[in-house]
Predict the 3D structure of the following.
Amino acid sequence: AGINTDEYYTISVEDTGAGLDKKNLNKIFDRFYQVNNLNKAYYGSTGIGLEVVKEFVELNKGKIDVESTLNVGTTFTITFPRGKDMFEKEDFSLKPFKKEHFIKNFELPSIEQETAVSVENAKKEQTLLIVEDHNELRNYLQNELKANYKVIVAENGKKGYDMAVAKLPDIIITDVIMPEMDGLELCKKIKSNIKISHIPILMLSAKAMVSDRLQGIDSGADIYLSKPFDMKILKSSLSQLIRSRQIIFKNLYTGIIKEGTQNTTTVDLKFIQKILAIINDNISKPELNVDFLSSKVFLSRSQLYRKIKSLTGISVNEFIRNVRL
């Protein structure tokens, strides 16, 4: 419904859905905020839409209000001022508006475009895999993190797992609720595969209950962040995950600690302990090198290199040399 006067124009949109509790009304315009348990069967929401609407309305000097009653419905009311008196001169574009230009620039990139490796990306040392089914959130994360990482993306857990095996990323961000394979199953599969079990995982979810966090950690996630999240905290968490993982495993062969207890999987601990045992048992043999170790643990040279590098921060040859010393 619309109301038109000389001073303003009002648009109201009303539904007869589940409605909202009053305590949630002042939060629904926050980025990534989602009402917990509103509809567990629906995974099509990102928590971005209302924030975008609010920003667009305010950019045009308008305001948006919401009224809601549980089990009755919700009404959104948008009010725009008429005329140009509310705007400054610099608010107006000097270029003529072209619909074709707007639509072209508004289109979201395809998965193929997102995964294309640029020359700039190739120079970055660490690879970040983002597994997220929502285009808006996936693109937001990619744009925020591409300055520090070579970013690759997948739109569901199944493709994310396949990409993790093929690309061996240094770290993974995953959503929880996704089609085909959810984030919990993805974590479990990654942490049970010796080739990729070393990769740290940061899990993002709108589910903020303690039980939800425990479920995420138990599935293998190293860090569980609830939406809405602060991008500075997310960036810091990523860098800390990589650094702390390397410190833990460096300590293993220097004898500082004997057991890993800091978000380290049993699979990775057994792997490092096996590597150490092989090196110590063959320490005097001249053939002890990367190829020798690869054959003993049934990994290719590249897989062994990426796993040792990710866990310890050094190459396989450096690892062997340090143990010998």
About this structure: The first strand starts at residue 2 and ends at 4. The beta strands are 2-4, 8-14, 63-69, 73-81, 127-131, 150-154, 171-175, 201-205, 223-226. The chain has three domains: 2-83, 107-242, 248-324. The domain at 107-242 is CATH 3.40.50.2300 (Rossmann fold).
